[in-house]
Amino acid sequence: MNQNNLPFFLLWSLIAFLAGSIPFGLILVKMAGKGDIRKAGSGNIGATNVLRAGGKLLGISTLLLDVAKGYLPVFLAGHFGQPVHLLAFVALAGVLGHMFTPWLKFKGGKGVATALGVALAYHPMMVLPSLVTFILLVAIFRYVSLGSITAGLVLIPAAAGVFGSWFCPAAQEPYGVWPIVAWTIIAFLVIQRHHANIKRLIAGTESKFGGKPKNA
User: Fold this and answer.
1) Which residues of the chain have pLDDT under 70?
2) Exposure winner among 8, 185, 205, 212, fewest CB in 10 A?
């Protein structure tokens, strides 16, 4: 690590963490007078639960804002010269901020939308294999959680350049192993956050997209 980059890397990581920590789902639902989203549906502050508990407008707004809060700090950090191997860890900081927001006693969301935002800012084409996987699985099986989990898994080989350098040229850089480490951590954090969904998928009690919630 270039020591000259260290102060700026730490600053951008802090900015990304704080931006990621903004609980837009909670804020929007409260502003709409619909109460505390943590006490509705799955209790998650992310877009899927907001969509179910607060309606399409709030759900879509939460999704876009959660993507944006991940995207903007990483985009700016890259624009102002953070090298790709450090930029991946700035991206990780943004996802950690969403998952462990200090404003909610370090509890947060599952990180899917924010992970999408940081990945788009890091290298847009890296998102394509995961996005295609997500869309196909949700369209076929109608489980958002299944699409999210599998998309997270697909992100790892994409970041490693398995699908070709076009999808992630950073994997070919001198410090290429570090971006792979960062994106692997992001992917497994997203998957771990879906542990309850995985249990429900196995049990056959997971709610389908657009359907009524099932009782476990």
Assistant:
1) 1-4, 171-172, 211-216
2) 212
Residue 156, phi then psi, degrees to nearest 5: -65, -55
Name the pTM for this structure.
Answer: 0.92
Q: How far from each other are the two terminal CA atoms of the chain, in whole angstroms? A: 48
Domain chopping of the chain, boundaries: 3-203
What does the H/E/C string look like for 41-90? CCCCCCHHHHHHHHCHHHHHHHHHHHHHHHHHHHHHHHHCCCCHHHHHHH
- The two structure tokens encoding residue 189: 């954090």
If you write DSSP's letter for every residue of the chain in order, what string do you get? --GGGHHHHHHHHHHHHHHHT--HHHHHHHHTT---GGGSTT---SHHHHHHHH-HHHHHHHHHHHHHHHHHHHHHHHHTT--HHHHHHHHHHHHHHHHT-GGGTT-----HHHHHHHHHHH-GGGGHHHHHHHHHHHHHH--HHHHHHHHHHHHHHHHTTTT-TTT-GGGGSTTTHHHHHHHHHHHHHHHHTTHHHHHHHHHT-PPPTTSPPPP-
The 10s digit of each residue's pLDDT in 55-82 is: 999 999 999 999 999 999 999 999 999 9
> What sign has the CA pseudo-torsion 11, 14, 15, 16?
positive
Q: How far is CA 148 from the centre of its chain?
A: 9
The length of the chain, given as a count of residues: 216
